[in-house]
Specification:
There is one protein chain. This protein has ten helices and 15 strands. It is of the alpha/beta class. The protein has a single domain, classed as Rossmann fold, CATH 3.40.50.720.
Length: about 290
């Protein structure tokens, strides 16, 4: 039995991951800032510890005795809501080094870090894999988020720990808020395509991301950064067209803001290294309701 610490254990990704970890036989320690808000962790039998990614002392105490630490901590606004995206960038650039130092001090040998597949954005229709990076502007929310994620990944690689990075595509599914927001806007006639809708987006259902994480612990391809995504990247016009059809709404109009550059990424290496495949191979499967 492996003792696995999960930082950010009250978030939506963790709510899908924790029960899968316990079902796989791991002893799970959920590290949260507010234990009162960690009902999902408590429900699946995880041990609760208080810790904050910017507080090294609390992290060292919470991590002591663990064999693997998984960092899922984020500070993202809810989909469709205004918020401080810079707080999430700071968490990645300043908080993750604190987490890594706490792992070293607590004697935790292995770390698994959540990252984002959007670091491979900017290639238009071109496919990207883990070594494909395109020139893109450093300004704007998406550009700053990608830069912060790459800085975070450098910290992980330079940590001296046994590391693994999973670059998740755009999450959707229960609790994420993304598809709920899309369906709500479709029903209200407010769903608009980003630009002309021709850009690609690559999705991953949050349950598939959780399943890939459990598989990563079982196989542990040390020192690799892997893209976790579904099998079929989709253009926004097809994605939002599917949403509108399922909602019984009119097809969305073009002309909305482009909030992220086009990204079309391959999950081939994660499928091979983790012996994993997404249950929801494309958006149609994942959006069915």
């Amino acid at each position: 039995m492996t003792t696995v610490a999960v930082l950010g254990a009250s978030g939506v990704y963790a709510r899908h991951l924790l029960p899968r970890l316990t079902a796989a036989g791991h002893e799970v320690r959920a590290i949260v800032r507010n234990p009162a808000a960690a009902g999902a962790a408590r429900a699946c039998g995880a041990e609760l510890r208080r810790g904050d990614i910017f507080d090294a002392t609390s992290l060292r105490e919470a991590l002591a005795g663990c064999e693997v630490a998984i960092n899922l901590a984020t500070a993202l606004p809810a989909p469709g809501k205004a918020g401080d995206y810079a707080a999430n960038d700071r968490l990645r650039t300043e908080g993750v080094p604190v987490f890594l130092a706490a792992c070293r001090d607590a004697g935790v040998p292995r770390v698994l870090q959540q990252s984002i597949a959007m670091v491979h954005a900017g290639g238009g229709d071109a496919w990207a894999d883990e070594e494909t990076f395109f020139d893109r502007p450093g300004d704007g929310i998406a550009g700053r988020a990608a830069a912060a994620a790459l800085a975070m990944e450098r910290s992980v690689r330079d940590s001296g720990l046994d590391w693994l990075i999973l670059r998740g595509a755009l999450f959707y599914g229960p609790g994420t808020g993304f598809d709920d927001d899309w369906f709500a806007r479709a029903r209200e006639g407010r769903l608009v395509l980003p630009g002309d809708g021709s850009d690609f987006v690559t999705l991953v259902h949050v349950a598939d991301m959780a399943a890939a994480t459990v598989a990563a612990l079982a196989h542990w391809p040390s020192g690799r950064s892997l893209i976790v995504a579904d099998d079929e990247p989709v253009r926004w016009r097809e994605l939002f067209g599917t949403v509108a059809a399922l909602a019984g709404a009119a097809p969305p109009a073009a002309g909305g803001p482009r909030r992220m550059p086009s990204f079309r990424v391959s999950n081939r290496r994660a499928r091979e290294a983790l012996a994993w495949a997404p249950f929801h191979r494309d958006h149609r499967s994942g959006l069915a309701r």
